[in-house]
User: Fold this.
Amino acid sequence: NESKIESISNGLFCEAAIESILIPSSVKHICKKAFYYCEKLRDVKFMNNSQLQSIGDEAFSETVIQNISIPGQICEIDDFAFSENLHLVTVEFLGDQITIGKLAFSRCDKLTLSSFPNATKICINKESFFGISHDFSLFVWAGIIIWSEFSIVAQIYESLSEIDLAIVLFNCMI
Assistant:
């Protein structure tokens, strides 16, 4: 029986005592504060063939998610969407073009890895990853264009080492 739910409304599960959730493939939008302050929410999964396009402001702020894989159809992560997730360690973005809003992953002080295995273009705010782990790594393929606000932050070339990339991104986020 296929779900017909297209959005998870503003604040729908705000402060709920849920520990895990499986988002139906029909959901296109997770709205503002949908799972805000769900202090026990540690596991978020998306059904195969997810049609999710956006995650709203503070949608998953202040949860205990440790790892998350963002579906390929998603194109926008709004401001503060995952902020203050003190247990978040890894984020995988499966889409080819993604925009990450202001402070989307701010104060995720254990966040050490964000990967973009399918990305062709990444747009980030200079504060998208503010207040994260000093051991943070960003993995992308060679040839990827990273935009920040109104200018190109970096185009990743095969000649750049991971250290060079980290320096480029660090300098652009200051």
Observations:
- The helical segments are 162-173.
